[in-house]
Amino acid sequence: MYIKSICMMLTILLPSAAIAQSNTTSITDAASELNKRLAGFPVTKQRTISEKKTVCYSEPCFNKFLSTTPEPSGARCRECVEIEERRIENFSTPASVSSAEIQRLDDLSIQEELITSLPDKVIITSDDLINCSSVQYSAQRTLTQTIQTGFAVTVTKTTSAAKALQGSLSIKLPGDTTIGGSSTFTAQIQTANATQESRSETTNQSQTISASVPAKTKLKIEYRTLVRKLRLPFSAKMIADGQLEPNLSNLFKASDLLPDPSLRTFPFEGYITVEAATAGKVTQSQYEPTVADCQGTTPSEEIRIRSTTTSLGSNEKSSVVTFKAALPGTRPSSNIINKSIFAKDLLSYPGAWCQTQACNLPLDGYRKVCYRDANLYCNDCRDEPDSVCAPSLSGSIQSK
């Protein structure tokens, strides 16, 4: 089963202090950036000017013995003192904000055209039941696997601001693809504390099979689980505003001078890495035992059992991963992509997922999903049902 639909609602907690989340995270200071955009808008302010002046005056001269009575000649002496004067003046200067805040999040969505698939792995639990006797052998076998799944959120571009927004991200996985046994998961995204939300879960799943091994036969039972790993980029526009520094122009906010929200828009970007598992598929195949398989058997020995569990990456031994399962309700598609495979491409085995397209327009509840064909071309396309593409659910991607 392959991931085909994403139903997402994402809101963000933005920081009051800019703290780098990782070496790859770009953080823009909203107040500083708004001041750059306000540089061409002057406002009138007041300031107090202090000036020093020298004031001179004359008065009757006193004798050199510091007499308190003026000299009889009536002479006058010139005296000068330095004084400080203050005055208030108006002046023009570019507007600037004292603080900034993010008011809302617009156009929040997953960038479906940029979704990429990271290397998958398949977990194979197998039983080799070797019947070297001359009678049929029947028994029940339970094959168990330990699966580790999870998700991680990485923010690559954000903006620091005084006011915080808070929310969560929810993703619904289709079909039997699960994380920790659940088809939905929710992640709190908090950039204020400079940490990214992540979760890893380990679950056990098993299949019980009734096995019948004819005489002189080797029965191979394989329980295969595909662990998918996808990278889903998301983006949004953050609309900011800021409190202007006091002025005499009767202007209070940056939006008074920049009324167009596009002039106060900042990007928010990142990606979610999802690792999810299918419910697993059981296959059986019969072979003739080799001489080595039956070497040393005794007449009373009914069956020989060899059990193994192996995890294989998509680039390790892709020949074991040749199965694919169409989702219920799929319908043939004539859309041929004809995308070839090169050595650097991931998922280069028949049946591997290679492209998920946007919802059909007009909305009809389907989208095209393509897989590798026998020649490893991305041509095996079909319309697969997806509830997010239903007309009644066209507004399912929301923000708050």
Plain-language structure description:
By secondary structure, the chain is mainly beta. Helix content is 3%, strand content 50%. The chain is built from 2 helices and 19 strands. It has helices at 30-37, 254-257, and strands spanning 8-10, 26-29, 42-60, 76-94, 97-110, 116-117, 121-131, 137-160, 168-172, 184-188, 198-213, 217-244, 265-277, 281-287, 304-313, 331-332, 353-359, 366-371, 380-385. The strands form 4 sheets. Strands 2, 5, 6, 7, 8, 11, 12, 13, 14 and 15 form a 10-stranded mixed β-sheet that branches. The protein has a 4-stranded antiparallel β-sheet with strand order 16-19-18-17, with no helix packed on it. A 3-stranded antiparallel β-sheet has the order 1-9-10, with no helix packed on it. It is elongated, with a radius of gyration of 38 Å.
**Strand element count:** 19
Number of helices: 2
Structural class: mainly beta
Give the overall average pLDDT.
76
Largest sheet features: 10 strands, mixed
Task: Determine the N-to-C terminus distance.
Answer: 32 Å
Question: How much helicity do the residues have?
Answer: under 10%
Estimate what percentage of residues fall within beta strands: over 45%
Q: Radius of gyration, rounded? A: 38 Å
Shape: elongated
Helices and strands, in N-to-C order? EEHEEEEEEEEEEHEEEEEEE
Low-confidence stretches: 1-23, 315-326, 393-400
